[in-house]
Amino acid sequence: MLLSIVVPVYNEEKNIPVFLDQLRPILTALTADYEIIFSLDPSSDRTEEVILAHRASDERIKLLKFSRRFGQPMATLAGLQYSTGEAVIVIDVDLQDPPELITDMVNQWRAGYDVVLPQRRQRTGEPWVKPIISAIGYKVISKIADVKIPPNTGDFRLMSRRVVVELVKLKEAHGFLRGMVAVVGFKQTIIPFDRPPRQIGETNYNRFLGSLRIGFNGIFCFSTYALKLSTMLGFLIAGFSFLLMGIYFFYKLMGWPILWGNPTLVILIAFLGGIQLISVGILGEYIGRIYEEVLARPKFLVERTEGFNKVN
């Protein structure tokens, strides 16, 4: 198999026909040796029926259906594990990842790159606050992450077979593909593009904030900087308290009245309480992820497969 297309889907019955109409001519122009793997979280609409209807006329369309909803990151990893192509492309079904970029991505792979990353220059059709939050998130991750994660890149990417083989060996339970690919490494290149608006339906993520959990995974799973920041903040506040104590002691020696009162006390207590809660929250984020890793539960459970000759 030359090319595998992995498409995580959830409640996308209206998008699938349009997506396939645009995708298949592009793939056919590249090669007849391809597969399209739909990784399906159980949906409340007719997504499964629509996929199977298209599979009836094209056996290169395949289906993974999970026993329950595991989320897009795990659905993506499942598709990678079941894929067989020498190159594997992860793409969303809503056409915000333009299928026409696939030709350039495959050409870059044939030129020797193991990972080809489309990078968003513009994000049309989204609320103004979302690009700001996204930019801040990527800025923070790029500053503190132990690996280099290119900004404004999603899960839309091409990976060579050797990258996919190493990816599925990783044991992380968070499924933050952007960071996992950065951990694996290999030769990478970027293709800039302008992201079009979603054509049909509503996104399954928050329209303004996106997926905060995925963003937090990028921060907490690839850096311990938040813990260091909490420690530095503790030392800073402790230093401030000693400075304040020195000032009050000086006032006492000079016989000056100490400016104190209920508002000052309330502000200091609220400030210190807030810092303590933030620090506990940071610890909780790390401990929660450690807990998930220690449980070592399956990343996904497949209820049904269509089009696969063997169970991976």
Structure description:
The protein is 49% helix and 16% strand. The chain is α/β, with parallel strands linked by helices and 312 residues long. The two termini are 15 Å apart. It has 2 domains: 3-222 and 297-306, Spore Coat Polysaccharide Biosynthesis Protein SpsA, Chain A (Alpha-Beta Complex), CATH 3.90.550.10; 225-295. An 8-stranded mixed β-sheet has the order 7-5-6-4-1-2-3-8, sandwiched between helices. The longest helix has 34 residues, at 262-295. It is elongated, with a radius of gyration of 25 Å. It has helices at 15-30, 47-55, 72-82, 101-110, 129-144, 161-169, 177-184, 212-220, 225-254, 262-295, and strands at residues 3-9, 34-40, 61-66, 87-90, 115-123, 157-160, 188-195, 302-306.
List keywords for this structure.
alpha/beta, Spore Coat Polysaccharide Biosynthesis Protein SpsA, Chain A, eight-stranded mixed sheet, elongated
Give the secondary structure arrangement, pairings included.
Layout (H helix, E strand, L loop, with lengths): L2 E7 L5 H16 L3 E7 L6 H9 L5 E6 L5 H11 L4 E4 L10 H10 L4 E9 L5 H16 L12 E4 H9 L7 H8 L3 E8 L16 H9 L4 H30 L7 H34 L6 E5 L6
Parallel strand pairs: 1-2, 1-4, 2-3, 5-7
Antiparallel strand pairs: 3-8, 4-6, 5-6
Helix pairs in contact: 9-10
